[in-house]
Amino acid sequence: MENNSKSSAKMTFWIALVVMIVFVFFGVSAPESFGKATDAAFKYMVETWGWAFIFGASIFLFLVVFLLLSPVGEIRLGGDDERPGYSNLAWFAMLFSCGMGIGLLFWGVSEPIWHYMWPPHGEAKTAGTVHLAMQYAFFHWGFHPWAIYAVVAASLAYFSYRKGLPMLLSSCLEPILGRKGIEGPWGMLINIIGVFATLFGLATSLGLGAMQIGAGLQELFGFTSGPALWVAIVIITSIIALISTSTGIDRGIKYLSQINIVVAVLLMLLVFIVGPTLFILNLLTQATGDYLQNIIQMSFGLDAAGAGTEGWYNAWTVFYWAWWIAWAPFVGTFIARVSRGRTIRNFVVGVMLVPVAVSMVWFAVFGGSALHQTFFEGNEAIMAAVNTDSALGFFAALQGFPASSLLVAVAMFSVAIFFITSSDSGTYVNGMLTSGGNPDPPLYLRITWGSLQGAIAAILLFTGGLEALQTASIVGGFPFMIIMLLMLYCLMKSLFAELREGTLPVEKRRIMDALAEIKSGK
Known about the structure:
This protein is mainly alpha-helical. Helix content is about 80%, strand content about 0%.
């Protein structure tokens, strides 16, 4: 069995490596053809199967909430006597850095401004659109994406830590594939999809991070933000990430994530204090109510009759759901890796509520400040920057505050740390998927995947193929959504089988034994 596991791991590694090389070679040698092919595939996917992403994401959210409220929430992701290996603060920091990271800094200003200029319905650039922009920013970064991550993370943690299976995505389908099947052809295919999604999703994310750091250097020092600068940034930060990954999760990622939380919170507090504080509080309150009140309507919104949205839902909601699903193998695997010993209820509360609350406050502070400058102060520079390049929006908004250079410098530092922690955690995930599920993969594998991530991002930034590769990675979200639905089925089946068999957590058994003794008069 061990020889089969090693053979399967080697096959997964080499197949994933060859597929990656083919895609990168195609993207570099024929960027226009590659771009056209991926655009055509993406257009077909969102126009023909957009409804499936909308339904799928909503099913994931509904069933994760069900896990939270049902009796299976008492089951522990590990042995009955196990306790979490990380404090809540360290755990939350790693969830936040891995799950959203660069995205919040990249889109924290740009997305609300885009919705303000191009709303899903109604007239653009009005008071009503200000509220609508924040409502939909909350929606796209709220419960749905974290429910998508939670499905993969809870399934993997349960089957790995409680059932003793390898930490492989294929292990989540053990009730369907069987013990031998998770390392067979179908199991390898699932794990290869996970490696592919992680590698290319991270490469595009790192590329976006390099572009944003470049935009910050342009704001601060007047450097020309272009391919040469972006590649230099990728190389430097990738080297730091490789140093971090060599120290292990308990040092590199853990400490960097905690540092980054402190830096991000400090930046957010500074903007909150020097910015339009009362407006931010009012907008946060109203947008929270709008989001919660309209979450069902937004969850199933597609504009079937064509009411003049001109593809807004495909460009935003469907795109986001496909993107989060494409990222789920990476983020879900990493969350599972650091969540051992928690009950399912504790896990769901931590994964669903804390990051969502932080994201909402983040958008209210930075997006709200940008909307205030744009709508009330007539500052059109932010809209112009976002129209030119979404990476410029965040820094353009910071220019409207006192000590803007300090704020930009802090923001750049935060992006760089997010960059490093994302790359670092990605090397662990791909290392696990190509080492038979080893939760502490060999250092040479981590260095191999970390180097390849940086190399892909640098090559595609230099050749202009980053956007096409991002589109290609999102197309991979559709087959993985089907895998996720099967994961949920297998997880529910195993959890309720455990309840039927009377396998209750230690805490609940002790309570029930104590009640029985009281009733018997002992």
